[in-house]
Amino acid sequence: LVIANEFFDALPTERFRIKNNKIESLYIGYKNNKLSYCWKPANDSFKKELDRAKNSNQRLEYDNYISELNLNYYKWISLLQKMLISGAIFIIDYGYNSREYFLKDRHDGTLVCIYNHQTNFNPLINIGSQDISSFVNFTHISNISKSLNLLVDGYISQSRFLVNLGILDIFKNKKYSEEQNIIELNRLKNILLPNTMGEIFKVL
Questions:
Q1: Which residues of 96-127 are buried (b: 16+ CB within 10 A; e: fewer)?
Q2: What is the pTM of this model?
Q3: Which residues of 41-62 are buried (b: 16+ CB within 10 A; e: fewer)?
Q4: Residue 57: pLDDT band by 50, 70, 90 thresholds?
Q5: Which listed residue, 90, 137, 154, 168, has the most CB atoms within 10 A of its CB?
Q6: Looking at the DSSP assignment, which residues form a beta bridge with residue 17?
């Protein structure tokens, strides 16, 4: 049994943009004594992987649209596939399917930085001191898994996954003090409710 809990969101990711109907990859340059963005035409292998990430039939006909494509997914799914003779893999993370991931309104992508518990969207500041992550594209991981002959047997919200496993019965049957019961109830709400982790976290 392999459980990858908030693993795939931490993998380094590539960023791309669509400008004038062309796909460009993001590189980091150095100009005027500081780091800066540098956009270059995406190569064919990048475009092919983007097709797999967006499920091939989904069209991205936007302009000035930025998003992410994680080229590290394949390496890690491939490693899991090679070491697994039989068993199951649970991937638990915050993310979307490709249709949600590449929504037109999500035109700045999903990359987020955390520094001193504060959110920002600039990976070129606080170098080495802030967390940088991007949301997981579960369609991309699913398509890679299928290409490696892994059976993708379910995609579900964390809330539904835990309720199906009986988390409410477990909570009800525990013998807590009144104070501990309030603490545990708040923890339960945090992982189940839609406005916390319940819906934004998914299980593949």
A1: bbbeebbeeebeebbbbbeeeeeeeeebeebe
A2: 0.90
A3: ebeeebeebbebbbbeeeeeeb
A4: low
A5: 137
A6: 24, 66
